[in-house]
């Protein structure tokens, strides 16, 4: 999906890349807001059923789930399901429609392919947080995913697209392991200080 919306592709479809990318980011935020609202509702339910843990307890719960997700990711455990956004939208609808539509689906995170078990840690963080914090977690999650679309802003030619694909392929494992290591270290550090 990352390389479906590029200056090259948008020019070929008769659309302006900056505009489609802007709508894609808006869609990501909308999707994140929907995820946050779902987590906020779940947070209220958790509070009503078992009570919300205090800050230290919540931090430890989030840290344990995060480390478990990192270990699972490194072990190659995946979430079943291969649904991705419908790329036929690219040739059927205007840029703003597929920008918002793709962004909302990807920003929500639960209706497309899940590439990391860390989404579970995001969900748990929302569930053990106050509703307002859960909403904020969702929006930040969606917006952060949307920012990744800026990586393809320099794709103006087919060679640029090939170069981007090669770079993404070459760096995938290193980025994945480094990111998982940093996330695990942050989670363990937070658990220790709480």
Q: Mind sketching the topology for me?
A:
Elements: H1 7-12, H2 17-49, H3 55-74, H4 89-92, H5 95-108, H6 118-127, H7 131-147, H8 158-193
Helix pairs in contact: 2-5, 2-6, 2-7, 3-6, 3-8, 5-7, 6-7
Number of helices: 8
Name the average pLDDT. 91
Distance between the termini: 38 Å
What is the succession of H and E elements?
A: HHHHHHHH
How much strand content do the residues show?
under 5%
Radius of gyration: 18 Å
Largest sheet descriptor: none
Please describe the structure with a list of short key phrases separated by commas or semicolons:
194 residues; mainly alpha; globular
Report on this structure:
The longest helix has 36 residues, at 158-193. Helix 2 (17-49) packs across helix 6 (118-127), helix 3 crosses helix 8 and helix 5 (95-108) packs across helix 7 (131-147). 72% of the residues lie in helices and 0% in strands. It is globular, with a radius of gyration of 18 Å. It has helices at 7-12, 17-49, 55-74, 89-92, 95-108, 118-127, 131-147, 158-193.
How do you describe this structure in short?
The chain is an all-alpha fold. The chain has helices spanning 7-12, 17-49, 55-74, 89-92, 95-108, 118-127, 131-147, 158-193.
